[in-house]
Amino acid sequence: MRCVAFALLMISPAMTFADSPEPSVKTIRIASMNVSLYGDSAGQVAAKLGGGADAQAIKLSRIIRTIRPDVLLLCEIDHEPDATTVNRFADLYLNADRSDVTEPIDYPYRWSIPTNTGLLADVDLDDDGRTVLPTDAWGFGRYPGQYAMAVLSRFPIDRDNARTFQKYRWSILPDALRPTDPETGTSFYSDAVWQRLRLSSKNHVDVPIVIPESAGGPRTLHFLVSHPTPPVFDGPEDRNGCRNHDEIRFWREYVCTPNAEFLVDDNGISGGLGDDQWFAIAGDLNSDPLAGDSRQAGIKELLACPQVQNVAPKSEAHSVATALFGSRRVRVDYVIPSVNMPLVDCGVVWPEPSTSLGRCLDATDHRMVWIDIKPTPQ
């Protein structure tokens, strides 16, 4: 199996994207995409999506409707308790008739995931004598629900057996990287704050996707989703770099130590993922194993974990990249399959800018990443 970047795929001039068939039961496509659908205040994104005419959302939807994932993680899309933003994007853009050549795609199963971003903490995190957004949110955010995640699926989501770690405390993680001033050796966070501080800047969620018998099942795919904080916007204590590292390390502990008593979810249930389970770790992890500002040991150790397949789509000319930050191309977006999943293909959606799909890329500074697996009954 050879993974290739989407930009290298050859498409016949006579073939349009509308000719692409619905995903076959022979393979299941799993994808992650940072869509950059956030605003300056609560309700702003939902309002702009109303009516189905937002230019950014139209471009994003064209990418999704072209690649047609069966299971899709969206990063940086607003969360509301009634999932207004997610539902408007799915109904008015993804599953709407349009004049372009892409066919609508329906995701009947959706989960707008609660987030720590913009959720005001009950302690003064930055020790400035007041508790205000955005600096005193459990995860940096100017309003509740900013920078959240959502899962869209063609297959049922088993919400009853989902596990969230939104309230998991950073200090509980063994060998946690407590941010410390390198010159003074003083901890950036007081003991009182450190004992309360949450690890996840958004959420860490085990989303069980039920693959039905008609699609090659029945079996469960554990979609392990997160969006660690960017490892920048801090000082010499590197508090965001430390947090990014440990947010990534959380998944290594989760898939490698099924009996870990220190992994306690929001319902009080301890332990990691059971042996021999299918899983895919997905998200904008904000860490490139070879470049950038992160503490690269976290992502390197995750990719080297014997429980995963390190699939990195590459061209012949350069290593894979999944985001463009200014003039820098970096690999920060991932869909990492478990070693026991039968992988068929993988890719990054980065077509030439002059193509019709390439003209949609300015909707976000990230690129969709995807894998195809071949489902087999458990």
TrEMBL record:
The keyword Signal applies. Residues 1-18 form the signal peptide. GO terms for molecular function: catalytic activity. It comes from the Bacteria. Keywords: Signal. It holds the Pfam family Exo_endo_phos. Residues 53-366 form the Endonuclease/exonuclease/phosphatase domain. InterPro entries: Endo/exonu/phosph_ase_sf (IPR036691), Endo/exonuclease/phosphatase (IPR005135). This is Endonuclease/exonuclease/phosphatase domain-containing protein.
